[in-house]
Amino acid sequence: MSGRDRDDGGRFTAAMSLDDVYEYVREQGNVTTTEVAEHWGVSSETARRKLRELEEEDRVIARDVGSALLWMADE
Fold first, then answer.
1. Which residues contact residue 74 at a Cβ distance below 8 angstroms, ignoring those fewer than 6 apart?
2. What integer pLDDT is reported at residue 1 of this predicted model?
């Protein structure tokens, strides 16, 4: 799944809403930033930004696991 569309200027844009990311995390149980990025074909930075937004909304929580963050739904 590419999850990418082109904007009016022909640039690629990620077609992933916060709700989409939240549902993916909830369905998977827990995910890494890399898994989210690969699922939508976006950069890790873009995925991390979406996950942080969800964390700020208290919809997901992050846990340090070694050198990675593991994200899970805060249900």
1. 58, 59, 60, 61
2. 44
